[in-house]
Amino acid sequence: MNNLIVPSSKEPGSNGNRLVVTPESAGWSHVGFEVYTLAEGQSLHKETGGNELCVVLLSGKATVATQNKTWEHIGQRMSVFEQMAPYSVYVPPGDSVRIAADTELEIAICSAPGKGTYEARLISPEDVAVEMRGTGDMERQVNNILPESAQADSLLVVEVFTPNGNWSSYPPHKHDQNNLPDETYLEESYYHRIKQEGGFAIQRVYTDDGSLNETMVVKDGDVVLVPRGYHPVSAPPGYDLYYLNTMAGPVRTWKFQDDPDHAWLKSK
Q1: What sign has the CA pseudo-torsion 195, 38, 11, 190?
Q2: What is the dihedral of CA 150, 151, 157, 161, to 10 degrees?
């Protein structure tokens, strides 16, 4: 049994919480991640403290307010598998956020240490660059919610749609060393959703020296922690896969190294 899988609770808590990952629980220093399911009319209040947040509306509509700004009735997709880009809200440290559910709502809260460099802002679907990455059975859709080119102190946030039968985060790559310009150290979490009931995905996390070598059966609502190593994902035939990535580290740059045994696949 490994400790890289964090499952969601089957029923939300009194405040809607389904899952919490903290740097302390993950055994690392930067990435935090939470998921909430709110009923229509329910609300959630969070203080940011020393962290910056990216609140991602996974499904449903909401009114979101920070200390100085309010965005009313945002959200458009009712399921992550509609594949359209989401509405999100960036919230700096030293602020707070209140999310009021205008419909049944699922939200993710991505967090990492912040410096207060940037103000709270809405990230609308028009702000999200959508790209197709890979070819053939490695093709997937990537929605860049908070990429390196967007303003944030630490956070990088992206969501990926992998069709059933395809591989993702593939060829395998890693970002676990501070070795610029070739590689950066970034902790990463994968929040998985599977479209078809009873489905699963496969994720492997492994290092060159074999000190970490886990192959995991991932169920709907699971988070997989990637503290180091390569981390490919497979969506088995019949089961479409969504995942939301949160990354953060000492330097806010995504520089990675492909597994040299599989890098040739990029020339297919």
Answers
A1: positive
A2: -20
Q: pTM, whole model, 2 decimals?
A: 0.96
Q: What angle do CA 134, 136, 140 make, to 5 degrees?
A: 45
Please list the rounded mean pLDDT of every run of 10 residues in the chain (268 residues): 85 93 97 98 97 98 98 97 96 98 98 97 98 95 97 98 97 96 97 96 97 96 98 98 98 96 88
Q: Say which residues have a Cβ less than 8 Å from residue 76's Cβ, sequence separation at least 6.
A: 61, 84, 87, 125
Which domains, ranges and CATH numbers included, belong to the chain?
7-266 (2.60.120.10)
Assess contact for 70 and 41: CB atoms under 8 A. Answer: no
Encode 107-145: b = buried (16+ Cβ within 10 Å), e = exposed.
Answer: bbbbbbbbeeeeebbebebeebeeeeebeeebebbbbbb
Q: Give the H/E segment covering residue 141.
A: strand 140-146
Q: Are 152 and 251 in contact (CB under 8 A)?
A: no
Which structure tokens are listed for 75? 């959200």
